[in-house]
Amino acid sequence: MAGIYIHIPFCKQKCTYCDFHFSTSFDSYRIKMLDWMLHELELRKSELKNELIETIYFGGGTPSLLTQEEISSFIQKIRKIHSVCVNVEITLEANPDDIGEESVSSWKKVGVNRLSIGLQSFDDEDLSWMNRAHNSAESLKAVQIAQNAGIINISIDLIYGLPNMNAQRWEKQLEIAIQLNVSHISAYCLTIEEKTVLYKLVQNKKIIPSENEIQAIHFEILQNKLKKAGFIQYEISNFAKENFYSKHNSSYWKGEKYQGIGPSAHSFDRKSRSWNIANNHQYISRLSENILPLDKEELSSKDLFNEMLLIGLRTIWGVSFEKLADIKPLTENFTSKVNQLILEEKAQIKNNCMILNPKGMLFADAIAQDLFI
Fold first, then answer.
1. 2-253 fold
2. Which fold is adopted by the domain 301-371?
3. DSSP secondary-structure letter at 149?
4. Helix, strand, coil proportions of the chain in percent (round to 5)?
5. What is the pLDDT along the chain (373 residues), one digit of tens a residue?
6. HEC string of 156-225?
7. Minimal CB count within 10 Å: which of 55, 130, 208, 356?
8. How far is CA 215 from the centre of its chain?
9. Which neighbouring-strand residues pair with 348?
10. What is the DSSP string of 241-283?
């Protein structure tokens, strides 16, 4: 089994907090870019030889800017060069302002069966300083349109830990989200990344970021409210109703193979990791010479051990001691640290796997790093 991620490097405008790779001035080379991305799929088809494609994920950027024909060209290309699972999950990331009856209908026709809608907030003031292209009313309408069109596998994105966001405001956001009756909610704590507008605003003291303690309170509210609403926290930032986990993202967390197509996209084959150049014009230039626009690193046993810890501890499945030991023998020091986490009620052992409790999930990255080789 394997997944294919397609990075669409186009956006209408730059969000304040975003450090993903994209361009807002792409009209002159849009068609050329998409053609070369299709060419990359062809050039790299041998990487997934004998693999059954279980998921296709259009991310970005803003994939909902693509036409029906453009989306279809990628899906048909993948079907032509690979074996594709009968019940393949095809996800399209979409912004609310791109969602209408006609667009959703066109996406369904070409095979999209899961939408990931970037709402981020139901507060117009928050959306304004984020520089989002939609408002809260459009968010609510977008979800309704998708549901009315018969798409039941809908995920929405929310951000917490925003400046000036108190517990009551965050609770209100979650209550609105729950009332939408979607099957999946991804909720991320606001991070301040360099080379973003938000970073400059913070540096110039025009925005005061929320404190870690407040973010922790928001996280606990998130866990409690969504659990009561019937959502399962299957990864630190991801909550779903039963049978609605993201198959694609779950494959990342379970260490399965995936191929990334497009500028800045990453790939993993269980032995090595590669990443495409994050420059649109250089990406096109290299492919025009039949040169793969990527760098690659072979992962050592140390790398694989640490990565399995870092990713596995973020999930409901935890990390398997057996799989870790297959990579590197578990030391007495490692076992001692695990036992301490159990005493502190931050972790539990189930089916020979270490799984973090809700208390431990708040410190997942720090716990993983402490257990690193």
1. TIM Barrel (3.20.20)
2. Arc Repressor Mutant, subunit A (1.10.10)
3. T
4. 45, 25, 30
5. 899 999 999 888 877 777 777 677 678 889 999 999 999 999 999 999 999 999 999 999 899 999 999 999 999 999 999 999 999 999 999 999 999 999 999 999 999 999 999 999 999 998 988 888 899 999 999 999 999 999 999 999 999 999 888 999 999 999 999 999 999 999 999 988 787 777 788 788 778 888 989 999 999 999 999 999 999 999 999 999 999 999 999 999 999 999 999 999 999 999 999 999 999 999 999 999 999 999 999 999 999 999 999 999 999 999 999 999 999 999 999 999 999 999 999 999 999 999 999 989 989 999 999 999 9
6. EEEEECCCCCCHHHHHHHHHHHHHCCCCEEEEEECCCCCCCHHHHHHHCCCCCCCCHHHHHHHHHHHHHH
7. 208
8. 20
9. 355
10. -TT-S-HHHHHHHTT-EEEEESTT-EEE-SSEEEEE-S-HHHH
**What span, in angstroms and rounded, lies between the C-alpha atoms of 340 and 358?**
16
- What are 100's two structure tokens? 């209408």
Other beta carbons within 10 angstroms of residue 345's beta carbon come to: 11
Alpha-carbon gap, residue 194 to 201, rounded angstroms: 11
Dist. CA 91–CA 56, nearest whole Å: 6
CB distance 260 to 278 below 8 Å: no
> Residue 132 class from Cβ within 10 Å (0-12 exposed, 13-18 middle, 19+ buried)?
buried
DSSP 313: T
Of 325, 363, 331, which Cα lies nearest the Cα of 344? 363
Alpha helices in 269-351 (DSSP H): 280-288, 301-312, 321-327, 332-343
C-alpha of 232 from chain center? 17
Distance CA 37, CA 31 (A): 10
Give all strands (DSSP E) within 45-113, no chain letters: 52-60, 83-94
pTM of the model: 0.95
Domain limits, the chain? 2-253, 301-371
Question: Whole-angstrom distance between the N-terminal and C-terminal Cα of the chain?
Answer: 29
